[in-house]
Amino acid sequence: MKADVLIIGGGDGGLAVFRMVKALKPDWEVVVVKPEVGFCFKCPLPFYIAGEAPAEGVFLKDEEMFKGAHLIYAHAVSASYASREVKLSSGEVIKFEKAAVIATGSQPYLPKVEGASLENVFTLRSFESANAISDALKTANSAVIVGGGYIATELSEAFVKKGVKTHLVVRSRVLRGSFDEDFSAIFKAELERHGVEVHQGKNVVKVAGSKKVEKVVLDDGSEVKADLVIFATGTRPVLELAMRFGLA
Question: What residue ranges carry the coiled-coil annotation (predicted)?
Fold first, then answer.
């Protein structure tokens, strides 16, 4: 198959590039390769879990978002800029005439913590993971959220609203990357006023349980019971394809 522009990745970046190309060159053939069906707005996911954002406002059909694109659901497995082609996991080879755009985005960063592979340990990055977390919340009495950014604090609020005892484990301080110490202190106090127990200056060193998570162990030796653990510890860029192109 040939395309004027090949976009690899169907997230926010891929969508932005697709719409820009179609606005400037509506006659160009654009192929979008993405691994999953559907488009997910990630920022509202904590509010979806809280029951405050409807599913139709978070997860949309690809045909609506990428109107006019040739959509292929696959992974790019090899690439050659010299021959201007990309081979897909389906075996299909896409040749691009004008440009190939790598918009593979990022993936959640899961620290190397013992027990992180136990059941009911999650990261939040997709509509599917949001639904899995929502299902786990139905039977959870207590939860631990690891991280101090926006997703971690928004999830804390969502869990409290669901009636779950919520612990927020923050290595440094709440919203450190966005605000100064004074505001962080105010925000921490507000979280605590709403029922979130904040363990500031702590880190999770172990997730323990037989099959499912039962507790976490902090770096000061203390233990916190948990039926559910979320690692909201940031993201890392997906660079594999860029490396195959010699760009990273």
Answer: none
